Amino acid sequence: MSAHAAACQNHPEREALGVCVACRARVCAECVTKVDGVNHCAACLAARAASDTPAGARDEGRAGRGGARVSAVALFVLATLLVWGLVEVALPGSGG
Questions:
Q1: Are strands 26-27 and 18-19 parallel, antiparallel or unpaired?
Q2: What is the pLDDT of residue 21?
Q3: Which candidate among 7, 29, 48, 93 keeps its CA 20 to 30 Å from the CA of 36?
Q4: If you compute the radius of gyration of the chain from its CA atoms, what whole number of angstroms results?
């Protein structure tokens, strides 16, 4: 390592190749992980993984409620059509 090169925070004998976007620590090739082209140190990556909820788990609750609403509306429309059909059979020509 040259005298002017920055050292890795975990390996002082190694040259730092990147800077963590979260904590700004200098990290070597072994310590850096790129996520979507952005550098992360191991500690910040672990903290991010622990705090992140998978996208499917976040959206699952909303999709379930939305699906229940659609089902309720579909059931209401079906019941309305069924009643209308029964009225037409019982009283032909009364629907207009």
A1: antiparallel
A2: 94
A3: 7
A4: 31
Domain match, 23 and 63 both: no
**Is there a single domain that holds both residue 68 and residue 43?**
no
Dihedral, 21, 26, 31, 35 alpha carbons, nearest 10 = 20
Alpha-carbon distance of 23 to 8, in angstroms, equals 13
CB atoms within 10 A of CB 18: 19
In which residue are the tokens 């699952």 written?
A: 60
Distance of CA 1 to the CA centre of its chain: 41
Please check whether residue 71 is in contact with residue 79, taking contact to mean a CB–CB distance below 8 angstroms: no
Over residues 55-74, mean pLDDT: 66
